[in-house]
Write a structure and sequence with these properties.
This protein is mainly alpha-helical. The chain has 25 helices and 6 strands. The protein has a two-stranded parallel sheet. The protein has a two-stranded parallel sheet with strand order 2-3. The radius of gyration is 27 Å and the shape is globular. InterPro entries: Na/ntran_symport, SNS_sf. It is found in: Membrane.
Length: about 600
Amino acid sequence: NEVAVEHKESSQSVDKVKKHEHERGEWNNKYEFILSCVGLSVGLGNVWRFPYLAYDNGGAAFVIAYIVLQFLVGKPMYFMELVMGQYSGKGPTMVWNMNPCAKGVGISMALISLVVTIYYNVIMAYTLFYFFASMQPTLPWTVCKAEWYEFGCVEKTIAPMPYCSLNVTENLIRYNNTPCRCYENSTFDMRSYLEPLGFNCTTTTWKGDKPVAVAQLYFDKEVTKKSHKLKIDEMGPPLWRLSLCLLLSSIIVIFCVFKGIKTSGKVVYFAATFPYVILIILLIRGALLDGAIDGVIYFIVPKWEKLLDLKVWVAAAGQMFFSLSVSFGGIIMYGSYNRFKNNVYSDALLISMMDIFTSLLAGFVIFTTFGGMAKELGVGIEDVARSGYGLVFVAYPEALSRLPLPQLWSVLFFLMLYMLGLDSEFALYETFTTCLFDEFTLARRHKGFLSIGIGIMCYIMALPCVTAAGDCVVTIMDHFGADYSVLVVASCECVAVMWVYGARTFINDIEYMLGRPLRPKIYWWFCWVICAPLLISLLFLYRMIKYKEPEVVEGVPYPLYAQAIGWVLTMIVLSPIPAYFLLKLVRAKGSVIEVGIYVSVMMTTI
């Protein structure tokens, strides 16, 4: 009879688990899970951020620092979050049944994901704008408009040219027969005076102190109509073309996540693999350009002295952290849809390696093309390279415009960019919705309609980002709502799991789930308990000590009221962490001393 009762209870338990999995959903197969995780971790930052950081911070020296930090922090954190999701079968908020006082960490993850979802879709709208613009007979970022010449517009990137001097000796010392620029609107004919003496006094078509590439002016004046007026009554209405691109992107994202992973799991077969096809095609095309090797050398030749520079390690840590999307909640969310016995150990290693591979592949794609462009124009790599938006919306489009069939290469490039952003976008979107549906299980019955409603809400909240001051709004949301905030979340997450729940308990859970010992155990214990929390905390402290106000233009910080709004956003996304901890502390039975003793006992499981 006892055996029969135990069997009945076991069957009921299994039925409950199956019912729970059916209600939440689960991956149809392992490929959907891996491709989705790759899509989350491999995004736009791998293309526009990693290559520039690498060449700006010592080439291969930066890559070495990046790989070292991947093994000490990135891989362990990624593996930890996948285990948390898979073992519990719950999203970022409900997973904290392991340590209820840390549930605020999960809520902060959901809020940060929502903030990033809003402004990330704006960047995707930029890629759609360029995608459609690439279909024109003449690429619009290759021709200067008449009104742009006053800003120094040039149709080919050229190095800045200094003004000639009337002092012949000074010209001889400074320029030594290299071209220099004639003064504009001068009543004195400088050219007729200097040329007989052997100096090349050149009259330029561009005005101002330095030339500005037409691709830069196209982005600033045509696409974003950039303005630095941040007051609400001065920002202007949403730009209609960007608003339509944002609407189209929102519709595509909603379609992909309408039924959760049941639909997004199918989309990633194309969205996660297509970018690699285009990257390889662009790499082959770039490698055939004259001067490609110069770009590769500039990208990877190590400057070993840079390894002793703390700024290089900080840059590598920042890139590693945000590239893998650790502590945004998406990894926990995707892991929660796995079967309990899935071999998450090998999955975590494969996905983190794909992140490194993609970053390096994108770097070679970018710099082989830049090498060819620099050779053709007769300028240095540093004159054509850009960081951030400038790399993918200014420098690389200009480089593609110099290839045969530029419309074809531009269409492929911007389609690839959109695909890279798409699977990251709906992962962030699903992180928020999964938290919502886990907290309010009855809402799962109306998942599709709620997904549409949340999509509409995100679209409306993103409209200020497509005004003339939208670029500044995006910067505020990124800087205050995600950049520093996610470092705080990561530190709290490590402590809550490894120091309070206990590293030994966590490792035992992994071994029970995998059905075999975790090896090498000492490596994982060292990284989880000591390395990750220590390095993340030091990174946060370093960045706060070296904190620099975001700038509208170089040397001009954002207005105080704009920064105040940013800090309020930081408080909103981080406030659940202390609030939930204090709530649990107040409701806890016993005195504060007894609670302290209990926590001390729990920490012995480290």
